[in-house]
């Protein structure tokens, strides 16, 4: 499934196997550091502030379109801006 966190007027999507896994990803320190790296107004934010939700149809389409560009990449997690 595709999940989304809404941060600083952006919607960032990622894939997770379950709601529990999505919450673990969104609550991880590495996820918070990655988000802080691209969201200048979020420097030093707490990972627990990220609450994943299921993606909308529009967000699913946008995520899948972007993920096809990285189909051959070896990245473990793709986080794509979908809104």
Describe this structure in words.
With 83 residues, the chain is of the alpha+beta class. The protein contains three helices and four strands; from the N terminus they run E-E-H-H-E-H-E. It is globular and about 25 Å long. The two termini are 17 Å apart.
Rg, alpha carbons: 12 Å
Number of domains: 1
Q: What percent of residues are in strands?
A: 15-25%
- Return the average pLDDT rounded to an integer: 79
Structural class: alpha+beta
Number of strands: 4
Widest sheet, order of strands = 3-1-2-4
User: What helical percentage do the residues reach?
Assistant: 25-40%
Span between N and C termini? 17 Å
> Helix tally?
3
Sheet with the most strands, sense and barrel status: 4 strands, antiparallel
Order of helices and strands: EEHHEHE
Instruction: Note the overall shape.
Output: globular
Low-confidence stretches: none
What's the quick description here?
By secondary structure, the protein is α+β, with helices and mostly antiparallel strands. It contains three helices and four strands.
Q: What topology emerges from the helices and strands here?
A:
Elements: E1 2-7, E2 10-15, H1 19-26, H2 29-38, E3 53-54, H3 57-69, E4 80-81
Antiparallel strand pairs: 1-2, 1-3, 2-4
List the main descriptive attributes of the protein structure presented here:
83 residues, alpha+beta, 4-stranded antiparallel beta sheet, 3 helices, 37% helix, 19% strand, globular
């Amino acid at each position: 499934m595709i999940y989304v966190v809404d941060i600083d007027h952006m919607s960032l999507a990622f894939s997770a196997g379950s709601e529990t896994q999505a919450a673990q990803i969104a609550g991880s320190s590495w996820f918070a550091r990655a988000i802080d790296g691209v969201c200048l107004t979020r420097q030093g934010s707490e990972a627990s502030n990220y609450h994943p939700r299921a993606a909308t149809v529009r967000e699913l389409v946008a995520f899948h379109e972007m993920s096809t560009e990285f189909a051959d990449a070896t990245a473990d997690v793709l986080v794509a801006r979908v809104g």
